[in-house]
Amino acid sequence: QRLSLKKWHWLLDIGECRTSQLNSGGSYSTKLTIRCNGNRVRVEGNPSRWQRMDNLFGLNTLDDCVDIYNHVLARYDLPAFTKNTRLFHRQTPDGKSSSLFGDGAEITLIDWTQNHMVGQGKEASFIRGMSSMQIGRGREPKLYPNGMTCNWGEASEWAMTKLYCKAFELKKHLKKNKRKKDGTTLEQLHYVEQLIAYCEEQGVVREEHSLRQKLLKRHNLQFYGLVTEQDFHAHLTDIENAMKTLHATHDTHQSIAHQLVEAGAVDTLRKANATLSYFTMWQHGSDLREILNRSQFFEHKARLKQIGIDISRPFDVSRMCPTLKRSEM
């Protein structure tokens, strides 16, 4: 799985520093924010955009991101981020569980991105189809009114997942750049226009995972130097798993029953037909929670979810996704 890092927040404990906050600007309207409260340095910003005109293909390793941050910190005579080599238990009040801290930099937020090619003009259909699915532990989808963005867990303190049309996003930024009186050259505008044309031709949909502090601490992923890129992969599979189960919805009811058998959701066609009957009721607007008891509802929900149908959400024909050929970039 090809993933690229997009945005990081870092913490670094230091001795003494009198600078409270500063913004370091790079080329192409990029910015990193450095904060210091006297004994800790914090850097926020997107290293994959630093001194680059775009981040369609971002950085691929943790060390690549750290190198950029350290380059900027050196400009202001601030200490560089270093790798953790040891972990220690922090003293806590009686009755409180112990927490860990290291002797190096700590990650407080990290974004991972991946691009998918779904075909020219099919981005909205793909995103709308995916918006019919819960992902992870019951995270509800939020489809934006423009149909070009859907996210799961937007307000979560643990993780947020997003799908969006890359060309649509670039067009919004292009309009902003054209309104600027200075700072954007014709060469840069032409480059972005070419990039938009490429994304439209390929039908690029961006997958983004924002792993936040609570999740990182829960799984001890915050210690730079003691974790690798592979350690994060287990937390980046929700969209891929949903894609594997998403099927075309123009199939006949009989084929849905057979899909349940083929997917291993049931072991007999009789059970598949029973689930199919409740699927039909759901499709006609019935709330199955009012018809089935709790255990029956979740039993049929689990079966249908294996073929990409989520009966916990009201049926919406506009969110039914056609069969699309998807390629990774």
Automatic annotation (TrEMBL):
Pfam families: G2P_X_C, Phage_CRI
NCBIfam families, A to Z: rep_II_X (TIGR01629)
Annotated Replication-associated protein G2P N-terminal domain residues: 24-224
The Replication-associated protein G2P C-terminal domain, residue ranges: 260-319
Upper classification of the organism: Bacteria, Pseudomonadati, Pseudomonadota, Gammaproteobacteria, Vibrionales
GO biological process, one term: DNA replication
Name listed for the protein in its UniProt record: Phage/plasmid replication protein, II/X family
Domain of life: Bacteria
